[in-house]
Specification:
With 120 residues, this protein is mainly α. 83% of the residues lie in helices and 0% in strands.
Length: 120
């Protein structure tokens, strides 16, 4: 394999390191969402009156999103690495972006509704 010029090699290293940092950001987001799921599904019901099932349902939904973040983070990391190996670019697919945005908006609205409608 021929030696790459220094500037090109450095840019490639920086891009790969940025991809690793992004992968870790997906993990952090997933772990944070899992923590929110625990708080919503277990801690809040223990501190409030009324039925637990709405909080548990929201907690399960947040947990599913957390698992999706961790899983998709790996898929995204792999796709970007493969694109870099080809000398190409891998943009975030629009379907993934809109899916995460839609699920986040729905969970946010469900949380707002639960906060407003749940008896204290």
């Amino acid at each position: 394999m021929p030696e790459e010029p220094g500037e090109l090699r450095d840019a490639s290293r920086r891009t790969r390191l940025a991809n690793e940092r992004t992968y870790l950001a997906w993990w952090r987001t997933g772990l944070t969402t899992l923590a929110v799921s625990f708080a919503a599904g277990r801690l809040v019901p223990a501190l409030s009156g009324g039925p637990n099932w709405p909080f548990e349902l929201i907690g399960i939904a947040f947990a599913a999103v957390g698992v999706a973040f961790v899983t998709y983070g790996y898929v995204r990391y792999r796709d970007v690495e493969q694109a870099l190996a080809r000398g190409d670019f891998a943009s975030l697919p629009g379907r993934a972006a809109i899916s995460f945005a839609a699920v986040g908006a729905l969970l946010g609205l469900a949380t707002i509704a639960l906060v407003l409608l749940h008896p204290t």
